[in-house]
Amino acid sequence: MPVITDIEDLKRIYRRRTPKMFYDYCESGSWTEQTFRENSSDFDRIYFRQRVAVDLTNRSTRTQMIGQDVAMPVALAPVGLTGMQSADGEIKAARAAEKFGVPFTLSTMSICSIEAVAEATTKPFWFQVYVMKDDDYLARLIQRAKDAKCSALVVTLDLQVLGQRHMDIKNGLSAPPKPTLSNIANLSTKWRWGLGMLGTKNRQFGNVVGHVKGISDPSSLMSWTAEQFDPALDWAKIEKIRDMWGGKLILKGIMEAEDARRAAQIGADAIIVSNHGGRQLDGALSTIRALEPILEAVGDQTEVHLDGGIRSGQDVLKALAMGAKGTYIGRAFVYGLGAMGEAGVTRALEVIHKELDVSMAFCGHRDINDVNREILRVPRGFSGDWD
Ligand code: GLV
C-alpha cells in the first residue's frame, strides 16, 4: 500500500484510478463553484489556541450522534453513485464505517441497493431519502429502509431541483457510462476500476431501477431528478414522511435559522447544516459560517450537525468547537474509496481520526466531549452581520 499521510494523498491516487466522469462528478460544485470552494477555505480562517503542560494521557474521541455511540463524531455522508467510484462502493464504504465505528449513510441514488448493503453488513446504517413525486414509490422506499433495520432516516431538503454542474453535462454523466469513443478511451486506462466493475452485478441505480416506472433514461441522474424529485416538497410533506418512518429523523440541507426552527418544531432528532457540498445553490454561505445563528436558534432543541468542506481532522475539530454535535465527510471518503476500495475508506477515517485526536491534544483536551469554542480564535464577524 502506498504511504498515505493525508486526504490529499488519497485524492491524487483516486484521480489516477477513477474514470474522469466520476471524478468530475465528485469534485464539482455548481456553476462558479464559489460555495464549493468556500466550504473548505473558510475553515482556514479559524485558528486554534495552542495549550501546554496539560496531562494528555487517555484521550478519547468517542461520543454519540442521535443517541448512537460513535468512535468519533464523523459520519459518512450520503453520496450518489458511490458504486461507480469503485465496484460495490457503497458496500465497501459501509463495511469500513462499521468496522471503524462511525455511521454510514446510504444515498437513495446509490448503485448498491438498500438490501444489498444490509446483506453485506452486520450493524444498522442510515438511509438518506430524496422526496419523490411518486408517493407509492416513496412509501415503498421508506418501508425498504425499515425492513433493512436502518437506524435513522436522513431527509434531504435542498434537492427539489438540481444545481448545474458543468462537467456532468460535458461528460454526459451516466451510470453505467455510455460506450462513447471518449468514454472508451478514458476507461481503457482504468483497468483496476474496469476489472472491479466486470466482477459485480451492481452497475445501475439499485434503489430505483426495477422499482419505479416511467423514467426516460434510468442511467441519468439529471433526467431522473427532473422527472421524479418533488418540486412541491413542503413542511406538510416532511411531517408525513416523519410519520411514515416513525424512527430517528435527520433533516439535511438547513442553512437558515428560520428553517432550523421549523425542523426542530416538527421533531427532527438532528439537522444537518448543509449546502450539499456546494453542489446546489452557488453563492450560499459556507456551512461553517452558517452554523452559529442556527445553533443560537435551535441548539438547545435538536442536535446540530454539519457537512461541507471537511477534509481533515482539524476541520472536524473546528466544526465541533464551533458547536456542531456531529460532522459528515463525503468527498474525503470517496477519495479513499476510489483510490483503494474499502482499505482506502478505512485509511481516510484513520487519517481524520489521528488529526482530530492529536489536534485536540495540542489544544489541551483529552475528551472530545469537553471541546468548546474556547480552543478557537474566530475572526470577528466570521458568521456575518448581514442586512
Ligand atoms: C446528488 O445528491 C448530487 O449532489 O449529485
Chart the SSEs and their pairings.
Blueprint: H1 7-17, H2 20-27, H3 34-41, E1 47-48, E2 63-65, E3 68-70, E4 74-76, H4 82-85, H5 89-100, E5 105-106, H6 114-120, E6 126-130, H7 135-147, E7 152-156, H8 166-171, H9 181-187, H10 191-198, H11 221-228, H12 235-245, E8 249-254, H13 257-265, E9 270-273, H14 287-298, E10 303-306, H15 313-322, E11 326-329, H16 331-362, E12 376-377
Parallel strand pairs: 4-11, 5-6, 6-7, 7-8, 8-9, 9-10, 10-11
Antiparallel strand pairs: 1-12, 2-3
Helix pairs in contact: 1-16, 5-16, 13-14, 15-16
The chain binds glyoxylic acid.
Glyoxylic acid is lined by residues 80, 109, 159, 276, 279.
Report on this model:
Keywords: Flavoprotein, FMN, Oxidoreductase. Belongs to the FMN-dependent alpha-hydroxy acid dehydrogenase family. GO terms for molecular function: FMN binding; L-lactate dehydrogenase (NAD+) activity. The protein has 387 residues and is of the alpha/beta class. Helix content is 43%, strand content 11%. The protein has one domain: Aldolase class I (TIM Barrel, Alpha-Beta Barrel), CATH 3.20.20.70. It is built from 16 helices and 12 strands. It starts with 6 loop residues before the first helix and ends in a 10-residue tail after the last strand. It is globular and about 60 Å long. Helix 1 packs antiparallel against helix 16, helix 5 packs parallel to helix 16 and helix 15 crosses helix 16. The mean pLDDT is 96. The chain binds glyoxylic acid.
